[in-house]
Amino acid sequence: MDQWTETETPHIAEDGDAAFRYRVESKSRPGTWNLVDLTDRNGLGTCSCVDFQTRANPNFKRIGYHIPWGPNREGRTDCKHLAQAKEYFYQTVTIPMLAKFKNGIPQDLSDFVP
Ligand SMILES: [Zn+2]
Questions:
Q1: How big, in percent rounded to 5, are the helix, strand and coil portions of the chain?
Q2: What per-residue confidence (pLDDT) applies to 84?
Q3: Of 9, 12, 56, 59, which shows the fewest CB atoms inside 10 Å?
Q4: Residues with Cβ within 5 Å of ion ligand 1?
Q5: What is the reported pTM?
């Protein structure tokens, strides 16, 4: 265990049928859901929470490059929800997709059409 390991599973839900958008529940304010869009900011993603709006995104606008979320990481340009949604996407979309490509890209891609 290190300082970056999450001990609690975050509450994350897909935002209806909107691709790449997730709702992430606030840990400090249960019942409050933040909207994360992984495609905004040229793929770096955005979040509706106060931390992103007042700290992370202003950092990005000031320094001009991406610094991932980390506890007390100076100058970070992501909030915790954004990091959690990216991890959720990686676990639920990227890894299963790569597993299907284990034997090469199939001719029939119907498995990937919702
Ligand atoms: Zn956030």
A1: 35, 15, 50
A2: 94
A3: 9
A4: 34, 47, 49, 52, 79, 81
A5: 0.81
